[in-house]
Amino acid sequence: MNIFEIYLNKIKNLITKLNKNGEIEIPDLLNGINVDIPPPQLDFDISTNVAMFLSKLNKKPPLDLANQLCELIKNEDDNIDVISVAKPGFINIKFKALFWNNFLKEIINNNENFGVNLKEKKTKYLVEFVSANPTGPLHVGHCRGAILGDVISNILIFNRHHVTKEYYVNDYGNQIISFTKSVFFRIREILNNEKFPLDNDDLYPGDYLIEIAQNIISENKQLKFDDFNKIVQELTKLSVAESLKLIKLNLQNLGIVHNNFVSETDIVNNNEVEKVIEQLKKDQFVYEGKIEAPQ
């Protein structure tokens, strides 16, 4: 039961009835009428702007029209305990305790299905969120996007939509080269006691790289770490994989699990972007033009 939707429809039905009786003027569309939660300082359950919406058309002050509608609304509904008008013309409604008792019973009786939008057509959704660069663990700033994305996904899942939670792994580009180079220097530091070049601004200096480097060394004893250029591809894969382990652990601590981790490197290597552009050209959705310079 959506209380706001139910009372919005009740109010619309009431003013439509009044209009048919010649008591009030209404526009063709009633989309501007709202039923909302009133401010917390007011001891009411719902509030509507219907009087302000209709005042101009009826050439009446909103407060006068609100007072006129108040009694009519209450007479139409046995669930209303108190109804009053507030400036500049809001109508505030408080429900009886019995209404809330019945409402709670409905929640209990419907159990997991309460609140599901059964009217909405079920759709496939791809929700891509977090997608932080795989160059280390997540920081506090990533938490907001992670939680928002997961909540949006869970609301869609709750409403019986088909949802895929996706993490786009940005493992292609200069930042990944810098990250892999940083891991390489940490490995050299561990194996050969070479000092990590902290003065190099292109590198990632975080201590978390030491753990990544140690894991790579212990799990890949066959690799030689003498020449960066010879092992850059293999080391990049290993470094990103270790970084993703940290990221997934961070997400699991928040109770978040993605369905897919999609690699940008795979997309580039498989020419997926070119394929999409070619398809767009084939379907005549692409044209060449010139963007005007900003004024």
Automatic annotation (TrEMBL):
Pfam name, any one: Arg_tRNA_synt_N
One cellular component (GO) term of this entry: cytoplasm
Domain Arginyl tRNA synthetase N-terminal intervals: 5-95
SMART domains, sorted: Arg_tRNA_synt_N (SM01016)
Keywords for this protein: Aminoacyl-tRNA synthetase, ATP-binding, Ligase, Nucleotide-binding
GO biological process, one term: arginyl-tRNA aminoacylation
Gene Ontology MF terms in the entry: arginine-tRNA ligase activity; ATP binding
Name listed for the protein in its UniProt record: Arginyl tRNA synthetase N-terminal domain-containing protein
Native source species: marine metagenome
Upper lineage: unclassified sequences, metagenomes, ecological metagenomes
